[in-house]
Amino acid sequence: MKLAMCVAAAGAGALAAGSAFADISYSHDFQSGVAGPEWSHQMVETAPLGGQRFLGQFGNEVVTLTLPGVNTGDTVNLAFDFLAIRTWDGNGTHGPGPDIFTVAVGGGPVLLASTFSVGDPTSAHRMSYPSPVGMGSAPSRTGAIANDTLGYTYGPNNFPLDATWRLSFTFTAPTDGLVISFAGSGLQELSDESWGIDNVEVNTVVVPAPGALALAGLGLGVVCGRRRR
Question: What structural domains does the chain harbor?
């Protein structure tokens, strides 16, 4: 019985050693009202409806998140809520625009560059997301996980206009120290078109070197040897 338990433990340990080690590097929901020095812009706003706090509002500007603990070659999983507020016009073929939201990694890939539209899904406004700018024509609010839940309105009739998308990306860290930029472009004034982000999560996955795997296996062997005595 002890031998069987030892073999099972060794197999499980080897499986764990052979896979990547995961570490949750960073998460923030801004409910404390404080963004932290890792953010280049630290305005935190409370939504008119429901009291949700988020980083924003922003317009045609770049907001960066800097995480020095990420190393070159780490696999990074990024997820966050993108909040588009009021009259985002999408591709801009039926009014101002195009209204673009971009996510990019410093020294690395552009993860997203798409237009978004916040309006009646039956309207003439179209948006490129989930495709890049110039490569898609989807109805307004395509892919949104929440609509008109924040309490932002527009016009004399106070028509509710906001939408939330949950966005996620996986990429390889290009340098030591991770810088992620979030940007809006093509937007009108904040009272007309703005954006924010919330519920940010950055997880890193580190693949152990072959030497580390060998040491892990050696450690398991020592443990098993002790159990047999």
Answer: 22-207 (2.60.120.1310)
